[in-house]
Amino acid sequence: MEADFLARYADGEVAEMRDVVCRQAMDGTSAVLGITDLSARQELVRWPVSNIFPAHGRKGELRIRAGDRSTGARLVVTDRAEIARARALLPGLALKEKRDRRRQGAFIGASTAVLGAIVLAYVYGVPLLAGEIVTLVPPAWEKKLGDTVAVQMQAALSKGSGFAVCDPDPNSVANVAINRFANAALAGTGTPFTADVTVIRTDVPNAFALPGGKAFYFSALLDKTETPDEFAGVLAHEMGHVAHRDGMQQLISTASTGLVIGFILGDMTGLSVAGGLGTTLIDSRFSRTAEANADRFAAETAKRLRFQPVGLANLLDRVAKDDTMTEALAFLSTHPLTDARRAALEALRATDDATLPPAFTDSEWRAIKAMCGTTSTATPSTTPGTGSHETSPRTPSSGPSDSERQRDKGQPGA
Amino acid sequence: MSQVAAGGNGRSGAVRFTGTREELLGIMVRGYLGMLPTLGLYRFWMVTAKRRFYWSHTEIDGDTLEYTGSAMQLLVGFMMAVVVFVPIYAFLFFLSTQSREWALVGYAAIGLVFWFLIGYAIYRTRDFRLSRTLWRGIRFDQRGSALGYAIRRFLWSALMVLTLGAVYPFMAGNLWRYRYGHTWFGDRPFGFTGSWRTVAGAYYAIYAVAIVMVGAILFDLVGRRDYYTRANGSIVPNAPVVLLGLVLFGFLLFGVYFYRGREISRMFSSVRIGDATVTVTVRGRAMFAQSVVYVLGMAGAVIVFAILLGVVIGSIVSPLGGNGHAPQTAEVARILQGSLVNLALLVIGYLALLATFATLAEIVMGFGYWKLVAREAQISNVESLKTVRAGAEDKSLVGEGIASALNLGSY
């Protein structure tokens, strides 16, 4: 078999293709491919074999280039038999194809490893990262941000009509007691913020804190709150978020997670829902840590302000048990109750110091329970033996006895 | 082996497309599977494979195009685009923390910036592709200024809004002229002989009929209140108006496809490469048929995914309600929030749905459009191209830049 093959040839200089025959030859000591015009029987060019590379053509077509990528010179072999002859003559082509594939594979592998490392470092670094960045945010700005968020939430929750504040008088017994407690919880933490708690009327059992000290307690949750312990636990927990600046950290982490997800999906416009889901996936790690820290803060506060932090777990339990799905999800998605969490709260039971005044006095608690006017005047529950107070008709039977036990141990009477 | 030698002035070269949907489907499926283990990085290799497919199967006068770009170039371009987008993203984040009014103003401003950037990206992408397209050993090139094109496109679109679309033929003529006036094959400039007149007839005919029908409907709705049929106090337009609305919808639907076919055929047929003339014939009804297939395919995909989702949710919920009572809220909540695996599955399912849609769009619409344009395309006086010499190489372009970050997907 003669060592040659037929091809179409473009020299990369003029837009013309000629039919050529290619033969292997020696140019001194190095192998070359001589390309000869088929009709003119004249050698056009000699390509050094070492400088011949595969180019990309369609299936059943072999394209060969000489030199670097910028040249347009090509040999195109289309006939099956000719392709076989060309490959036999130029075994280097297959080797170079294989080498190129290996290189691409290695490059993909390496860049995936780098990207993966960045994502992992990010996922585990988010709490640290956000915690560091948040110290750079001026408190005044964070306060303003909280106010903005409050306005947005107000519009979203009340369909534009504004929050229905249960007790608009800031000097009422209930409001004074709540904010006294909240600020006492924040005292000594070095936080630049002042607590501003508002009880508002909505059907959703929830409570949350915003960046900058604003916090909201919803009437539906207050209805389900049976003891001052529970109320104080939730408030102290929310104040923990304020003191730790969790809202701000969450905001920073969500924004930067969006950036990472955008990079992975290649969608920098950040519109894709997958981006949102991925963000949730990464952020849930972050919020679990934040919740645990806020619980610890509540427990620390309990030592100073005399209440039982486990009331928080009791209330969470009750909301989880006796509510319809959507309502429960609203509260639980922000405050997931796990067995581990309850155990941690129970372990943090405050040693009762009778020299301290209780978190809320009987009359204060009565005023707080009555402030939304949705339940009949509740009997103070700090006195042992006064029994359970069914603020919600759907309260399960296991709830009261449980919380009663806590009360008996924790609050021996005012 | 060769028919080129025959020569002769005025000989036409035909365009032929030899690719199959099966091969493209293979590329898409491999691409999306490759994206899973590579955290999405494989998308640059998929796009490159896709372009090689389209280019290498497009035969002009017997010789195929070759795409010489590489995936690495796209990756580098994307990284550079990310640098541009991070400040925009930071600004978006800042906006989200501001009061409603300011946030809205800010979002509108960012929207305008994006609209402007899209024009820039379109031009850069075209430049990238043309400068990496080889035919008979000679490269194409796009010169002119991407910024200039973006400004033109931006101002034209503002005029479009102001004139309710009446200025469209002028915009189309102007932008096509700018694109092809700066396109080169080697050292030979392309030309564009079309203008607003090229598409004005078809466009304004449809525009006028639509205006008359909309006017009639508005007249009936606003002007002749007594014709309302009132049912339990609510206002219901009378039957002729509803009928007219349906006719308008049908007319616009077919009109748009008819017009698209017209525009593509006539505009492409106004393109010159030196003395060679391009002729393209695309029929609106063929494009319409493709859209129908695409919509049906999407609907099918949605149904399949909905059934799958139902089965999955059912298998999660049913063991809870197994002993007669309804599933406990707390239990369902715990499953939904407790397991990252469930969330991850949800994400993967969603990505699979996206990949299915994108594959469908590529296989039906992308492939179909390319094939329709190529099918009856001709280049007259193709012999005149034999004297084209290589131009100076355009080395300035590393990647497609912003385009790859903005997700401008086609081809």
Give the % helix of chain A. Answer: 40-55%
Please give the alpha-carbon distance between the first and last residues of chain B. 31 Å
Radius of gyration of chain B: 26 Å
Main interface: chain pair and counts? A-B, 72 and 77 residues
Q: Strand percentage of chain A, roughly?
A: 5-15%
Determine the number of helices of chain A (DSSP H or I, runs of at least 4 residues): 13
Question: Between the first and last Cα atoms of chain A, what is the distance in angstroms?
Answer: 110 Å
Figure out the total of helices of chain B. 12
Largest sheet of chain B: 10 strands, antiparallel, barrel
Task: Describe the largest sheet of chain A.
Answer: 7 strands, antiparallel
Average predicted confidence as pLDDT of chain B: 83
What sequence of helices (H) and strands (E) makes up the elements of chain B?
A: EHHEEHHEEHHEEHEEHEEHHHEH
Count of extended strands of chain A = 10
Low-confidence stretches of chain A: 324-330, 375-414
Which class of secondary structure composition applies to the elements of chain B?
alpha+beta
Structural class category of chain A: alpha+beta
Provide the gyration radius of chain A in Å.
Answer: 37 Å
Structure in a nutshell:
The complex is a heterodimer of chains A (414) and B (411). With 414 residues, chain A is α+β, with helices and mostly antiparallel strands.
General description of the model:
The complex is a heterodimer of chains A (414) and B (411). Chain A is α+β, with helices and mostly antiparallel strands and 414 residues long. Helices cover 53% and strands 14% of the residues of chain A. Chain A has helices at residues 80-89, 91-134, 139-158, 173-186, 219-224, 228-244, 246-265, 273-305, 310-322, 325-334, 339-347, 362-370, 398-410, and strands at 4-10, 18-27, 30-37, 42-48, 52-55, 62-66, 74-77, 196-200, 207-209, 214-218. In chain A, a hairpin with a 2-residue loop joins strand 2 and strand 3. Chain B has helices at 21-35, 43-56, 71-96, 100-131, 146-162, 168-181, 196-223, 239-268, 284-317, 329-338, 340-375, 402-406, and strands at 13-17, 58-60, 63-67, 133-135, 138-142, 183-185, 188-192, 229-231, 234-236, 271-273, 276-279, 378-380. Chain B contains twelve helices and twelve strands. Chain B has a ten-stranded antiparallel β-barrel with strand order 1-2-3-4-5-6-7-10-11-12, surrounded by five helices. Chain B has a two-stranded antiparallel ribbon with strand order 8-9. Chain B has two domains: 22-188 and 275-406, no CATH class; 195-269. In chain B, strand 6 and strand 7 (188-192) form a beta hairpin. In chain B, 28% of the residues are buried. The model of chain B is unreliable at 1-8 (pLDDT under 50). With 411 residues, chain B is α+β, with helices and mostly antiparallel strands.
